[in-house]
């Protein structure tokens, strides 16, 4: 919008410039700038390399979202989701569960890494909680408004966060594995749970009935959405990608966060 300044008698050039500056300051909103950075933290002697994204134009503490990567480790996809969350006004921290430099590409290597943590839930829960603690440390985070999301391996990890009784507003699992060797106990699940599940996910479908029964017995507040025809990995670019399920599940997450964090 072009600024229109009317010069009046007795108005000095410097006054005109001041008027223009004042008008621009009021009329034009501050432009959001998404800042990102790598964050080195540790589990004992093991170095972990996380990724933080936030909107630099925001003032005051904002809700914080933990992002847990899929079975390929903390690579571009998890980082892109963290940036998208930052664009929504959240401070997003993508945790590194595998450790610095461990970024498998081959499916066999991915399976080995994911299996290491799935078979050792205390280790998995500890690494996820370390991510929560790093999120809390960010100066722009409101520590009373925290949530977590995860994809695939990460979608398996965030229900463990809820099962462990961690104080969070909610967790969102995107096509995550739902079975566990450490089931939730009645009254211990504090976080609300949203599951975004692909109806054609052959990796997870057989785990759904037991998971729903577990959550019911635990008296957890859980919403379960099935996207019919969607396969495992339906949000990630690749053979299984389904645009409709991707967009609808992201919208469901945004609505969920609007309810529990605002």
Keywords summarizing the entry:
262 residues; Rossmann fold; 37% helix; disordered N terminus
Characterise this structure:
The protein has 262 residues and is of the alpha/beta class. It has one domain: Rossmann fold. The chain has helices at 13-27, 76-87, 107-118, 121-137, 153-163, 208-217, 243-261, and strands at 34-43, 46-55, 62-68, 91-95, 141-151, 170-174, 192-198, 222-227. It has an eight-stranded mixed β-sheet, sandwiched between helices. Helix 4 (121-137) crosses helix 5 (153-163). The chain is globular. The chain starts with 12 loop residues before the first helix and ends with a helix.
Rounded to the nearest angstrom, the radius of gyration is 22 Å
Described by strand count, sense and barrel closure, the largest sheet is: 8 strands, mixed
Global outline: globular
Helix/sheet category: alpha/beta
Looking at CATH, which topology would you report?
A: Rossmann fold
- What is the CATH class? Alpha Beta
Strand-and-helix sequence, N→C? HEEEHEHHEHEEHEH
Q: Could you list the spans in which at least 5 consecutive residues all have pLDDT below 50?
A: 1-30
Q: Helicity range of the residues? A: 25-40%
Percent strand: 15-25%
Short description:
The protein is α/β, with parallel strands linked by helices and 262 residues long. The protein contains seven helices and eight strands; from the N terminus they run H-E-E-E-H-E-H-H-E-H-E-E-H-E-H.
Any chance you could write out the topology, listing elements then pairs?
Elements: H1 13-27, E1 34-43, E2 46-55, E3 62-68, H2 76-87, E4 91-95, H3 107-118, H4 121-137, E5 141-151, H5 153-163, E6 170-174, E7 192-198, H6 208-217, E8 222-227, H7 243-261
Parallel strand pairs: 3-4, 3-5, 5-6, 6-7, 7-8
Antiparallel strand pairs: 1-2, 2-4
Helix pairs in contact: 4-5
């Amino acid at each position: 919008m072009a600024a229109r300044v009317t010069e009046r008698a007795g108005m000095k050039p410097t006054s005109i410039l001041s008027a223009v500056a004042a008008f621009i300051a009021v009329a034009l909103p501050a432009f959001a700038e998404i800042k990102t950075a790598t964050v080195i933290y540790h589990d004992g002697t093991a170095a972990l390399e996380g990724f933080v994204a936030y909107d630099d134009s925001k003032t005051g503490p904002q809700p914080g979202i933990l992002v847990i990567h899929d079975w390929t480790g903390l690579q571009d996809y998890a980082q892109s989701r963290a940036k998208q969350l930052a664009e929504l006004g959240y401070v997003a921290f993508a945790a590194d569960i595998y450790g610095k430099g461990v970024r498998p590409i081959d499916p066999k290597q991915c399976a080995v890494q994911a299996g290491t943590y799935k078979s050792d839930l205390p280790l998995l829960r500890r690494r996820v909680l370390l991510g929560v603690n790093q999120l809390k440390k960010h100066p722009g985070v409101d520590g009373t408004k925290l949530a977590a999301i995860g994809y695939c391996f990460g979608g398996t990890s965030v229900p463990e966060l809820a099962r462990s009784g961690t104080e969070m507003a909610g967790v969102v699992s995107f096509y995550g594995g739902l079975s566990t060797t450490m089931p939730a106990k009645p009254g211990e699940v504090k976080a609300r749970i949203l599951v975004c599940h692909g109806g054609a996910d052959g990796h997870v479908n057989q785990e759904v009935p037991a998971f729903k029964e577990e959550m019911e017995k635990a008296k957890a507040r859980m919403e379960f959405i099935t996207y019919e025809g969607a396969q495992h990995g339906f949000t990630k670019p690749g053979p299984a990608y389904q645009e409709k399920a991707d967009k609808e599940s992201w919208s469901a997450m945004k609505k969920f966060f609007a309810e529990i964090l605002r």
